[in-house]
Design brief:
The protein is an all-alpha fold. The chain has one domain (2-113): Globin-like, CATH 1.10.490. The chain is built from seven helices and no strands. It has helices at residues 8-23, 28-37, 40-46, 62-72, 81-93, 98-107, 110-113.
Length: 123
């Protein structure tokens, strides 16, 4: 998240927007497994506005996936939604089991998957 500066409030907002966008594209059981692995403080923002009966939302393209990220960041300074997603995935690598990252990646559309590096490769 250091890619986006030192503003903690901005980073926290960015983290929440991206995590919720990812969560909403996962099957309910996988979204729950991912949430259980998040640090306790982050888990709260992850589950904000959680509506399991509406999951998973289908994103057929990268633009449809990035749209909610861009919209969620409208009230802050400008941010590239692709860069935001990549930053959050980098942070997740430090807190989430690589097996869980693989499962999350496999559940996302191919073009979105490319924003999340494979945990089996060096990064």
């Amino acid at each position: 998240m250091a890619d986006h500066g030192q503003d903690r409030q901005f980073a926290w907002h960015l983290l929440g927007v991206v995590l919720r966008t990812v969560r909403d594209r996962l099957p309910v059981d996988m979204a729950s497994h991912l949430g259980a692995q998040l640090p306790l403080l982050v888990r709260g923002t992850y589950y904000e506005q959680f509506e399991p009966s509406r999951l998973p939302q289908k994103s057929r393209s990268l633009e449809e996936f990035l749209g909610p990220v861009e919209q969620g960041m409208n009230d802050t300074r400008p941010v590239d939604p692709k860069a935001a997603v990549q930053s959050v995935f980098k942070v997740l690598f430090h807190h989430i089991d690589p097996g869980q990252i693989r499962k999350v990646r496999a559940s996302l559309p191919e073009d979105v998957r490319q924003l999340c590096p494979d945990p089996d490769t060096k990064h």
